[in-house]
Amino acid sequence: MKPVRTFxxxxxxxxxVLDGGLSNQxxxxxxxxTDALWSARLxxxxxxxxxxxxxxxxxxxxxxxxxxxxxxxFEGFARRGVGRAEAAGLLARSVELAxxxxxxxxxxxxxxxxxxxxxxxxxxxxxxxxxxxxxVRELEAFHRPRIEALVAAEPDVLAxxxxxxxxxxxxxxxxxxxxxxxxxxxxTVEGGLTRAxxxxxxxxxxxxxxxxxxxxxxNCCDPAAAGAAVERAxxxxxxxxxxxxxxxxxxxxxxxxxxxxxxxxxxxAVEWAAAGARIVGGCCxxxxxxxxxxxxxxxxGEEGS
Length: 305
Known about the structure:
The protein is of the alpha/beta class. It has 13 helices and 12 strands. Helix 8 packs across helix 9.
């Protein structure tokens, strides 16, 4: 159902279970995501599949759903011959589909509109490198129209996610400034640094003192890096942390496939919550079964505390 409480109020009341990877659930449903638009293509070609994927995570216990707009941009749609008015409608549809899936249950479900990085639009793995050679102003101009289109659909929060460097984080927060919707800021990290090699404490600090930012943390990273990052985010900002790592497998951008082994342990969600995380879930290759186990671990941890 549409939540009664604001997202910030819910964060103050306890840990919120986030969903897992949308793309892997869509693939499990038989969808072909080899297109450069990835899951965003289905906003036009298969919206029922997106709604079904959201519903699978709701059944698994997720109480926050991230929309299928990560790779949805005006520029990306334009390459497919989609005009701006239609593209804006597809962005709004991403929020509506998540809201519809949430409406199937009585529990409060919050919708987080995904705002992916500039690198996601390039569809070449650039979000795992950052440092695009663009200024804060140029990146702000890229992100603002999409944020405005998503905000018009009335999500509960904006997920500024898979951010590879501080320059883009600053641009995203400027683009979202004054939009009337709270945001969370989530970096993708490696080796205790942003993907661009910046110190995490400094990266998180750009959100300190910004009341619009309700949570700061990491996503789309190795699960082993999550705990330390959560602690640094909490210390650097004094805000709740958000954490949703990958399964532990690595994305091969050139081969457009995953390699390596799964290392996501749902039981570690309790440790992340103890370190300050208030939004906990999974990213790529983390499916509904794992989210269900994660939700059970958090519930057991609350009962034992």
